[in-house]
Design a protein that fits this description.
globular, about 15% helix, about 625 residues, seven-stranded antiparallel β-sheet, 37 strands, 9 helices, alpha+beta
Length: about 625
């Protein structure tokens, strides 16, 4: 049996061919290819359903409207969902949008919710741990009212978390963010986050992409970005003891990001001075406390089509630091002629203040990570079929390590003897009777494989995980573990489901994955994510484990809310649920009566019957 896609997709479209008809019709669309790998046969409950090969007008309209909806959105910044570890590896933390901020207790390992954003919060940042492994920082952003005569901003319509496993996209708007400090103690009350300070910025992305604050290496100060006039930002330092601030980066910039080297000896700022002299533009490096700044040569950052340098351009230009302190590398891009972009990899030394080019390529160079010995680095080259290669300090490039295109390179583990990367599963499709040429479109990003390879790049490595989408892989600083987000996504979807959020409910459970044992520490925060874990175990045919997670998820579901009106469009409000998979799991375990009840629940909630349409009298 060929496991080519997802377990099941149910999507439906209700309409009436003629308003004079007494009964409305339902158009039920699904792909049997998506359910066969799981069930092995067509389920009895779906027999008799006719599959029509038609392209709905709404689907076609969606294709036409989508470019218009996405066009014209400048200054986009993508959210950072990296699950961070404390330096000793005993605790992890993450933000989950409207669900809040979560951390694992360093003593018990239990997942704790430490902060709940209110309805006015636009974005929340990933927690950042202090050097003492007990304290952490995070930020939250709200809309800032720039017109004093305008009414105060109301609650925000949050961007749904589960529609973007790679992180949601945030647009430019004035914000005011709060920096929060949380200290882990045995007393729950004293562990509550406290507000340290507020600052203004011109883009929500500073918070969403976790760019607003950083710990000083000494652990008693916080660096932060703040708007200083109508168009510019500055970088400041907040003293936790005196609560006083001072400016550490001397230049104003329309966009700026900053960070410390891993050993804390150097502070680096990347500045976009769109309206300032070119001499202020680029990468700047100083000592820990922001003295004696050095503008790194060759760091003029390319502009966007509107002539400005965006925050995303600065993120792409950030240096990668080696464990040998002063050594760093970065990539620049330029378009000298005939729209042919040229990428140059530079290596520099912050102590000697020297920079030299290492290699030039017409293919994109990205995702730099230094090997622990500091003698080479890993780099992902190309966009269409990205290759993972090593680059030595003399510019020599290795043969590609990967076979399938690399989506994400996580770098080396703490010991340096293993590296990890993510690549897509082999994607195939069957051109059978149930293949939808237009109504269903393949989703090649739906399945990933985590590969763990020898640190010297001598082999492709072993596939240690597959079957779900994998995003934001991040090594533990002390153990053979990766923090990741696992997402189950159907491999075929229609535009109806994308726009109206029908079909299999998504979720993005955070997890800690042990690459040695294959054990997964799930960090679920709601019913949808518990159902996702159930799906994972069902895919592995571990029915007992799947049932346990489905039952946990079902216990957390909100009460069923009936539609407000009885109309022919009632099927549009059918609940997204996992009752069908719960039923199948019970059936496989021989619990027939419970399975029948769960199947009845699925049919009642997922396919609600359309209301009767009164027959209108025909005038004589």
């Amino acid at each position: 049996m060929q496991d080519i896609s997802s377990w099941v997709i149910y999507e439906y479209f209700a309409f009436s061919k003629n308003l004079g008809n007494k009964t409305a019709c339902r158009w039920i669309l699904f792909s049997v290819d998506d359910i066969r790998p799981l069930l092995g046969r067509r389920p009895q409950c779906l027999k008799g359903i006719t599959m029509h090969r038609r392209l709905s007008l709404l689907t076609l309209t969606g294709w036409l409207v989508l470019p218009l909806l996405m066009g014209g959105c400048s200054e986009q910044v993508r959210e950072d969902r990296t699950i961070t570890f404390s330096d000793n590896g005993k605790a992890a933390g993450f933000q989950h949008g409207a669900e809040g901020v979560f951390v694992t207790n360093s003593q018990t390992g239990a997942l704790e919710k430490v902060f709940q954003p209110d309805e006015y919060t636009l974005a929340t940042s990933t927690p950042l741990w202090a050097p003492d492994n007990k304290r952490m920082l995070f930020t939250t952003a709200v809309a800032r009212q720039t017109d004093p005569d305008a009414p105060p901003p109301g609650p925000v319509a949050a961007i749904p978390w589960d529609i973007a496993p790679e992180g949601r996209v945030f647009l430019k708007q004035p914000i005011r963010y709060t920096c929060w400090l949380r200290t882990e103690t045995a007393d729950t009350d004293t562990s509550k986050p406290v507000a340290l300070f507020e600052a203004d910025c011109l883009h929500t992305g500073y918070v969403a992409a976790n760019l607003a604050v950083r710990w000083h290496p000494g652990g008693q100060k916080v660096l932060y970005v703040k708007q200083i006039d109508e168009h510019h930002h500055g970088v400041f330092e907040f003293d936790l003891e005196t609560r006083a601030s001072r400016r550490v980066f001397p230049h104003a910039a329309s966009a700026v990001i900053f960070d410390y080297s891993p050993d804390g000896k150097y502070l680096v700022c990347l500045a976009a001075a769109n309206e300032e002299p070119p001499s202020r533009h680029g990468m700047w490096i100083s000592g820990t406390d922001g003295a004696n700044w050095w503008r790194v040569p060759h760091t003029a950052i390319g502009q966007d089509q509107d002539g400005l340098v965006s925050i995303e351009k600065l993120r792409a230009a950030r240096p990668a630091w080696s464990r040998q302190a002063a050594q760093f590398a970065f990539v620049t891009s330029s378009t000298p002629a005939e729209n042919q972009t040229e990428y140059v990899l530079y290596v520099g030394n912050a102590e000697s203040r020297e920079v030299r080019p290492l290699l030039t390529d017409s293919e994109q160079l990205a995702q730099l990570h230094w090997a622990p010995d500091g003698k080479r680095m890993g780099i992902v080259a190309g966009e269409q079929s990205p290759l993972l290669q090593f680059v030595a300090l003399d510019g020599t490039r290795s043969m590609p390590i990967n076979v399938r295109p690399v989506r994400k390179f996580a770098g080396w583990n703490a010991a340096g003897d293993q590296l990890a990367y993510v690549a897509p599963e082999a994607f195939s499709r069957t051109l059978g009777d149930s293949y939808w040429a237009m109504a269903f479109f393949p989703q090649p990003l739906a399945r990933d494989v985590i590969y763990v390879a020898p640190g010297n790049g001598s082999a492709i490595g072993d596939a240690v995980f597959s079957g779900m989408r994998v995003t934001f892989p991040h090594w533990s600083p002390t153990e053979e573990k990766l923090s990741v987000w696992f997402t189950y996504t159907p491999t075929y979807r229609s535009l109806l489901s994308e726009f109206l959020r029908w079909g299999l409910q998504q979720g993005d459970p955070a997890a800690i994955f042990d690459v040695e044992t294959g054990d997964i520490e799930w960090m679920t925060v709601n019913a949808a994510e518990k159902a996702q874990v159930g799906h994972y175990h069902l895919l592995q045919k571990d029915y007992d484990a799947a049932l346990e997670w489905y039952e946990q998820a079902a216990a957390e579901l909100p009460p069923e809310i009936p539609p407000e009106s009885e109309s022919m469009f009632r099927p549009f409000v059918g609940l997204q649920n996992f009752a069908f998979f719960h039923y199948y799991c019970l059936d496989k375990l021989g619990r027939t009566e419970e399975a029948a009840a769960k199947l009845a629940e699925f049919e009642r909630t997922f396919f609600p019957p359309p209301a009767e349409i009164p027959q209108t009298a025909t005038p004589e």
